Amino acid sequence: MSYYEIQGGRPLSGRLTVQGAKNSVLPILAAALLAPGESVIHNCPDLSDVSATLDILRLLGCRVEQQGDTVAVDATAPGRTGIPEHLMREMRSSVIFLGAVLARMGEVELSYPGGCELGPRPIDLHLAALRTLGAEILEEQGSLLARRGRGGMAGREICLPFPSVGATENAMLAACSCPGTTAIVGAAREPEIADLQRFLRAMGAEVSGAGSSTVTVTGGRPLHPAEHRVMGDRIVAATHLCAVAAARGELELTGVEPGTLSAVLDRLEEAGCRIHTEDGRICLSSAAPLRGVRQVRTAPYPGFPTDAQAILMAALAGGTGATLFVENIFENRYRHVDELGRMGADIQVAGRAAMVSGVGKLHGAAVRSTDLRGGAALVVAGLAAEGTTRVTGLAHIDRGYAALDRDLRALGAEIRRLP
Ligand code: UD1
Questions:
Q1: Residue ranges per domain, the chain?
Q2: How many A from CA of 120 to the centre of ligand 1?
Q3: Helices and strands (H and E) in the chain: how many
């Protein structure tokens, strides 16, 4: 079983270009199914979640070629509408194929994605959105069969009671095949939704409003393949920034829009970092122990991202002063807390709240990743800690980071992947 071995306590310094965004590339690859012909997607990060998505596309009958970080998906003749259970289990976000396959083939069968390490993650909002557009969905024994209803599918108003990222994307994809106008009201405003909109528009779709809480799609027209460059990953950027903030040093990041990271940058500044931003570039310098900051409440974009909660917590745990975190998006997102405790962190959890009291310095320990961002948080903690940290459970980290150890070594970190 591989693990990261980190010799912590060394300052970091250097430049990095941020990889393409995992949460953007997955729906965009699924969207490539919508048009016959070959779409070309650039800046695809080398992640296990991307490999799983490409496996699903191949299985559906697409030809997929990968060269470096460019992926060509030829969706001329997809032949299958079913996704087997083992692929659905591998990656919860494969639920995005619900809208994409339904739009292209008129029918889709997949197993229920079920829960995950962040607590229950239902898909009721995805199903309600597709039903509003006229899909008939049968749910039995853990599998889902969705098809165009007898009366066909048509554009309608979809009201989301919570701005779910996945449900917004599934509704956008399905709506592309529905004649008439669909308005998704209460849509998620995440930048990855705007990236999906850019790709759909390049394919000839009439989509607008992404980034606001109403996304409008006028569907039913044939789409054509397109070329697209995936936006930079704001959570990977947050990881690098928190690593340098905690270990101290200087970082220049390119390939990510600073505006997509405002909530994280605000907190790092408040914790004592100096930050300078311009188009596509963020510079951070950290010279003193991080200070506690005002409450960090996770919220839908543009609020503080739940995906950066563990990472900022790890950075602040070895600083000074107290910070209260409130996790409002997922029920079970404090599983990194016990592991940080092994490194000397003082964090008290009560329900959705976690009070972090900075201990000045963490110490190295053997710790285990319990989920993707929780694992990245342990790496951040290990870089700032005194002594040696071993992080196991790298399969979680590989879902979202193309080469976290390589990136960090480029900043002077002592981190090795073993064996
Ligand atoms: C996406 C991101 C994930 C991020 C999350 C929140 C991808 C591939 N993943 O996940 O990294 O942590 O947004 O920013 O983009 N919910 C329901 N019913 C539904 C759907 C969601 O109750 O049908 C609830 C979820 O249980 C959760 C909340 O809504 O509590 C947010 O979920 P959602 O925005 O859908 O997250 P994902 O799209 O799964």
A1: 3-19+232-418, 22-229
A2: 10
A3: 14, 24
